[in-house]
Amino acid sequence: MRLVVLGSAAGGGFPQWNCRCPVCTLAWDNDPRVRRRTQTSVAVSADGERWALVNCAPEILSQIQAVPALHPRGGRRQSPVASVLLTNADIDHVAGLLSLREAQPFRLFATSGIHDVLRANSVFDVLADTIVERRPVALGTSFELVEGVSATIFPVPGKIALYLETREEADTGGLVTDREGEQTIGVELTAGGARVLFIPGCATMTNALRDRLQGADAVFFDGTLWRDDEMALAGVGSKTGRRMGHMSMSGGEGSLAALAGLDIGRRIYVHINNTNPVLIDGSPERVAANRAGWEIAEDGMEIVL
Ligand code: MLT
Ligand code: MN
Ligand code: ZN
Question: Which residues lie closer than 8 Å to 257 by C-beta, 6 or more apart?
Fold first, then answer.
């Protein structure tokens, strides 16, 4: 199995267009300790010929341009991208679909819940049903994502997309940020005996999830924030990680602690928010994450298993 990290940043990218938090400021100033990142998506393939995208970031065009294996070849209109799988309906994971509208057939996999959100946003009808096949997949089932790669999707604690929050709060009197259901999922990818987990958003660790992570060859996990109150500390907002449906890396309930002791081949943080100090080479937070066995994904990173 080949996996290429097309983008590794959380919603907003790095640096974010309107942000001068301490970490973004380093990027705007071209400090060599940080590298720019686009929003999170990975490409996966068993044979290097046919590829699936897991999530489709707003920067999909530049992401494809940057990865030769994803360039069109062998015809006037062609793409090695055979399918796309969505892990939620947030902008950072779906907006790139609008750039895949050039009458190119591919299969679009998601839960029924996520398909419903796309259906309710008519701009996505630019992907005509006659060309792009929208396939609902049930939680817990396995399917062929692309030739030679099978995927199983499973619910992880999380919330609905940011732009739906107001409606849910009005309809139900509150927002649940760690609900398990069809709106936030993780995906297990298997090919040629390798098993990889991709979980870019996760509100809290559960025993079921820990069991699933155990023994994986690689885990790509929610690296949004180093600490829960990071946005407030950076002076760029009041939302906590908990409120956004993202567990932090550090702390007693953080992912460093939650995954410690599990037998995992490679543990890699993706969906890293621009405020997160692990983005800085040599920062105490980066050193602590590396010491705990974690890698910090960068755009263009490739793993072969
Ligand atoms: C998130 O992961 O919390 C979202 O991507 C936020 C956003 O849509 O900007
Ligand atoms: Mn996101
Ligand atoms: Zn920032």
Answer: 251
Phi, psi of 68 (to 5 degrees): -50, -35
Q: What is the pLDDT of residues 273-282, one digit of tens each?
A: 999 999 999 9
Number of domain units in the chain: 1
Cα–Cα distance between 264 and 211 in angstroms, integer? Answer: 11
Query: pLDDT of 237-265, one tens digit each?
Result: 999 999 999 999 999 999 999 999 999 99
Give the mean model confidence (pLDDT) for residues 221-242.
97
**Structural domain for 123, as ranges:** 2-304
| Cα 123 versus chain centre, distance | 22
- Assess whether pLDDT exceeds 90 at residue 267: yes
| Residue 60: closest CA among 76, 38, 45 | 38
Residue type, 6: L
Give me the CATH number covering residue 211. Answer: 3.60.15.10
Q: CA–CA separation, 212 vs 209, rounded Å?
A: 5
CA of 64 to the centre of ligand 3 (A): 25
Structure token digits, residue 6: 């097309």
Ligand 1 contacts (CB < 6 A) are 10-12, 90-92, 162, 201, 244
User: With contact defined as beta carbons under 8 Å apart, do 80 and 43 qualify?
Assistant: no
